[in-house]
Backbone:
């Protein structure tokens, strides 16, 4: 378990309980101590506590009052009461208010051990349930936020209490940053959504957001939406943060707060998408990459809409992933907002294009080698030919050739060679009167029986039956023509 709180006014008893907990087989990351219910309540208001051991009779605030006051808290610990025999009626009363169990004094080490084991098991099950509920909540929030036109007011109202549990009852803002900077805000109070526009989204209370904005940390380019109060305005706050993030990304600003700006759409930028896709595989790739950098330069000086430019860039990235066949080991094309700023993205994008073009060259060279191998097989099928001879002829590793040949032709080398030989044997059976034993040798079969067996397996009839059937069909057709 993460945190356990011991509330006991007598120091020696408190320290004894803590010592027994530390010696138990159940690991506890943090053990807190305090002397009365007042101090305990202050701790519970500031941080999450998994389990609380509390005495009943204490100065300032007793255990019964503490348990009653805890009803106001959004997150309550599991409570274990430390009770003397003369306090048993109080312990029973406290259990009516949700207390999990009680321990009679004097406390034994075995009792603590057994209790902690039971609590750890229960807490583990509870954590799994809570984590699943939190995942469902975050997925629902993501859906409603990104599909505002489909969301109904009731859906937002149903989620409001859970949202407020994270961000409080005051105003809030939405912040967007790249995934690489996500850990920077990991300890902020609020809601975190990963994988939003390739980065991380934070829904934070206004004071928390304001503090981060004032820092203006140069290590990240942050987009910040306006201040909002109603949870119904979360989709609007998200769109604002996204537009601000795009501007921060383009201009490399540490913090960009949303401001409404109007840009004229550029028809030539829309046409650039098709031109880029067509020219990337050609020797004009460097030209279109320079043109892309120029578009980003224009956007940084507010002469091009960041939204239009990033929309076109995203479309280019998707087409590169889908339109061209990528090598299995190559990662997908980088996406803009995965990176802190435009310069980092363009560097990664150009590197990816370089790797992609090299793979194209490699694939082209591989195809040329396979075509050379096929030509060699067709020219030499009548000889005593094997795969080692062909792979040596094109200067290619034997095993690599075997895999590449099958991928290129759809069949393995042996079957491909056999298909060519059988096809040529059929031609000779039809067009010549050569003996079957002669034909077998002419197409590369040294063994007559092997030839006849292979031919029947491939054609369903023996070579002599094939020749006879063909002549019968040909004569029949000739008679009809007459």
Residues:
């Amino acid at each position: 378990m993460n945190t356990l709180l011991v509330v006991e006014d007598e120091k020696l008893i408190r320290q004894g309980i803590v010592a027994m907990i530390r010696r138990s087989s159940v690991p506890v990351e943090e053990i807190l101590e305090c002397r009365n219910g007042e101090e305990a309540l202050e701790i519970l208001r500031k941080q999450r506590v998994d389990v609380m051991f509390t005495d009943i009779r204490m100065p300032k605030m007793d255990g019964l009052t503490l348990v009653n006051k805890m009803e106001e808290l959004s997150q309550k610990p599991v409570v274990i009461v430390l009770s003397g025999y003369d306090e048993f009626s109080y312990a029973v009363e406290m259990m009516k208010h949700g207390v999990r169990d009680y321990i009679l004094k004097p406390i034994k080490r075995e009792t603590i051990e057994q209790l902690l084991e039971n609590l750890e098991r229960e807490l583990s099950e509870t954590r799994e349930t809570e984590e699943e509920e939190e995942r469902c909540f975050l997925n629902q929030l993501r859906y409603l936020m990104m599909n505002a036109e489909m969301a109904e007011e009731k859906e937002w109202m149903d989620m409001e209490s859970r949202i407020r549990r994270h961000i409080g009852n005051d105003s809030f803002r939405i912040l967007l940053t790249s995934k690489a900077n996500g850990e920077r805000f990991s300890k902020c109070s609020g809601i975190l959504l990963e994988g939003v526009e390739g980065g991380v989204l934070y829904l934070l209370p206004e004071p928390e957001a304001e503090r981060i904005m004032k820092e203006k940390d140069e290590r990240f380019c942050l987009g910040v939406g306006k201040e909002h109060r109603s949870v119904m305005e979360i989709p609007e706050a998200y769109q604002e943060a996204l537009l601000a993030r795009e501007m921060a990304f383009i201009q490399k600003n540490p913090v960009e707060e949303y401001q409404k700006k109007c840009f004229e759409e550029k028809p030539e930028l829309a046409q650039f998408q098709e031109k880029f896709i067509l020219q990337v595989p050609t020797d004009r790739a460097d030209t279109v990459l320079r043109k892309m950098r120029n578009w980003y330069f224009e956007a940084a000086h507010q002469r091009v809409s960041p939204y239009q430019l990033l929309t076109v860039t995203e479309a280019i990235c998707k087409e590169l992933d889908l339109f061209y066949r990528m090598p299995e080991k190559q990662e997908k094309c980088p996406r803009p907002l995965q990176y802190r700023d435009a310069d980092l993205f363009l560097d990664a994008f150009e590197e990816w294009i370089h790797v992609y073009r090299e793979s194209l060259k490699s694939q082209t060279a591989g195809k040329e080698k396979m075509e050379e191998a096929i030509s060699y097989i067709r020219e030499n099928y009548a000889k005593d030919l094997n795969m080692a001879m062909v792979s040596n002829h094109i200067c290619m590793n034997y095993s690599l050739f075997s895999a590449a040949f099958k991928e290129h032709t759809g069949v393995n080398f042996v079957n491909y060679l056999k298909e060519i030989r059988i096809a040529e044997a059929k031609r000779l059976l039809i067009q010549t009167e050569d003996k079957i034993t002669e034909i077998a040798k002419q197409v590369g079969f040294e063994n007559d029986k092997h030839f006849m067996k292979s031919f029947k397996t491939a054609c369903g009839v023996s070579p002599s039956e094939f020749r006879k059937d063909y002549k019968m069909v040909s004569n029949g057709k000739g008679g009809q023509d007459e």
Q: What stands out?
A: Strands lie at 3-7, 30-34, 51-55, 78-83, 101-104, 172-178, 191-196, 199-205, 222-224, 255-257. The radius of gyration is 38 Å. Confidence is low (pLDDT under 50) at residues 478-482.
